[in-house]
């Protein structure tokens, strides 16, 4: 893969995430449900765009994304133990 400026790649991740969010902006939960059924292909493409930039960014920085995700999940599970965090949206330092 070609090396790209990490700043530009990060910006591209955010732009694609914004394009994904655009699909849901201002819609109610019920409207989103119907919209997703009718527009799954377009939503799928935006998710793919995000993943493409994200994977290329990680690759350019020589980051093993799968391993990084596993490590982060492990870290999160310690920060947010199920018995304390389940059903809450409180930040870890307030649990
Ligand atoms: Mg896009």
User: What gross morphology would you assign?
Assistant: flat
Q: CATH top level of the largest domain? A: Mainly Alpha
Mean model confidence by pLDDT: 94
What are the segments in which pLDDT stays under 50 over at least 5 consecutive residues?
Answer: none
Distance between the termini: 43 Å
N-to-C order of helices and strands: HHHHH
Query: What is the CATH T-level topology of the largest domain?
Result: Helix Hairpins
% residues in beta strands: under 5%
Discrete helix count: 5
Radius of gyration: 17 Å
CATH architecture of the largest domain: Orthogonal Bundle
How many structural units, i.e. domains?
2
Find the structural class using helix and strand composition: mainly alpha
Short structural description:
This protein has five helices and no strands. With 95 residues, the protein is mainly alpha-helical.
Descriptive account of the structure:
This protein has 5 helices and no strands. It has 95 residues and is mainly α. It folds into 2 domains: 1-63, Helix Hairpins (Orthogonal Bundle), CATH 1.10.287; 65-95, no CATH class. Helix 1 packs antiparallel against helix 3. The chain is flat and about 45 Å long. The model has no long low-confidence stretch (mean pLDDT 94).
Give the topology.
Layout: H1 6-22, H2 29-38, H3 40-60, H4 65-79, H5 82-85
Protein traits:
95 residues; 5 helices; mainly alpha; Helix Hairpins; binds magnesium ion
């Amino acid at each position: 893969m070609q090396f790209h400026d990490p700043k530009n790649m990060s910006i591209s991740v955010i732009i694609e995430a914004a394009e994904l969010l655009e699909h849901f902006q201002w819609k109610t939960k019920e409207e989103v449900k119907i919209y997703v059924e009718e527009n799954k292909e377009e939503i799928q493409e935006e998710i793919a765009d995000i993943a493409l930039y994200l994977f290329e960014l990680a690759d350019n920085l020589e980051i093993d994304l799968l391993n990084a995700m596993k490590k982060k999940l492990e870290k999160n599970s310690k920060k947010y133990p199920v018995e304390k965090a389940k059903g809450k949206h409180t930040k870890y330092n307030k649990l």
